[in-house]
Amino acid sequence: MLTLTVGAERAGERLDALLQGLDVPALGPLSQRRARALCELHAVAIDGVVAAGTTRLRQGQRVTFAAGHAARTLQLRIPVEYEADDVLVLWKPPGLAVHKGPLVDHSVADALAKACPGAGLAQRIDRDASGLLLVGLTTGSLQRLGAAMEHGGIDRHYLAVVAGVVAEDQQTIDLPLRVTDEPRGDQPKTIVDPAGQRAVSHVTVVDRRKDASLVRVRLETGRTHQIRAHLRAIGHPLLGDARYGDPPANARARSTFGVDRTLLHGTRLSFPAVIAGDTVEVMAAHPTDFARLFPRLATRA
């Protein structure tokens, strides 16, 4: 990860101008077009939050991007955070579908099929959600990652903005879930049911405001729509979630903060490397809509 600290001489410049001319692997000095494209693809962050290329810089800000994966990012048109040992980790932007479908013009699967034949997804996240997505580039790596997922060897952490003030700083939601055959897009697909599959989510409050809370969720199991169903079950559904959420809370968030999607973000991912005993950990930059509600997400770390 390349980190640049903005000095007094560059303060006031646009972000894409700062990147222009930087020498990056496999591309050489970045052209203006490529610098702008990387910003448009959500591949560049300022103080830990994804930023647009038109953003004016301030002295002391820290600009980060995965310079070593810039060529692959431009090829896929999706930010690449990690690539090694037949594994990719992508930063999926909100609104991009993971799989193909009748109402999907473009998906992560489409991009992988064109650029990385034989690659496959080792996990999935909802179209509205953003964040880290694990990809196996070969059949062997997919099998290895699938086995690790089945045995709890892949650790997934998410940030979520939920309606209301969550009282407990930490809690574990241990409620069995069952996937229904409900076809309507505005009705829950996964419900709490004693006859369902075991599902466990560990929830920690990161920040609070008067009408919403920012929580970190670590998944112990990986059921369909687990986070959405579990947070709804404790009375704090995800903001912006049309299917599991609270309509009045969603309407307020839309009118006040422009929230137009489910506020769920895959923020940390760890998985076993090919070399036994090693663990790869990847951290994601925060999306701008999260930082709009919780400005303290922007860090100088």
Offer a concise description of the structure.
The chain is α+β, with helices and mostly antiparallel strands. The chain has helices at residues 15-19, 32-40, 70-76, 108-115, 139-150, 226-233, 247-257, 288-293, and strands at 2-5, 23-24, 28-29, 44-46, 49-50, 62-65, 80-84, 87-92, 120-121, 130-136, 155-163, 170-174, 177-179, 190-192, 200-209, 212-219, 264-272, 279-283. It folds into 2 domains: 1-76, Structural Genomics Hypothetical 15.5 Kd Protein In mrcA-pckA Intergenic Region, Chain A; 78-297, Pseudouridine synthase (2-Layer Sandwich), CATH 3.30.2350.
Structure commentary:
The protein folds into 2 domains: 76 residues, RNA-binding S4 domain (Structural Genomics Hypothetical 15.5 Kd Protein In mrcA-pckA Intergenic Region, Chain A, Roll), CATH 3.10.290.10; 220 residues, Pseudouridine synthase, CATH 3.30.2350.10. It has 301 residues and is an alpha+beta fold. Strands 7, 8, 9, 10, 11, 12, 15, 16, 17 and 18 form a 10-stranded mixed β-sheet that branches. The protein has a 4-stranded antiparallel β-sheet with strand order 1-6-4-5, with no helix packed on it. Strand 17 and strand 18 form a beta hairpin. It contains 8 helices and 18 strands. It is 22% helix and 30% strand. The protein is globular and about 60 Å long.
